[in-house]
Specification:
Helix content: over 70%
Radius of gyration: 14 Å
Strand content: under 5%
Order of helices and strands: HH
Number of helices: 2
């Protein structure tokens, strides 16, 4: 159970990092593309 939870936390951290990277990249793009990049 603990190992499964640790894996979930690791995946969640990866997702959060990826989202932050996309937001940082989005700041250098035009607003139209930035708005599109926030969609799933």
């Amino acid at each position: 159970m603990e190992a499964k939870l640790a894996i979930q936390l690791e995946v969640f951290d990866m997702v959060v990092t990826a989202v932050q990277d996309r937001r940082e990249a989005g700041k250098s793009l035009p607003k139209q593309q930035q708005a599109a990049s926030t969609l799933p």
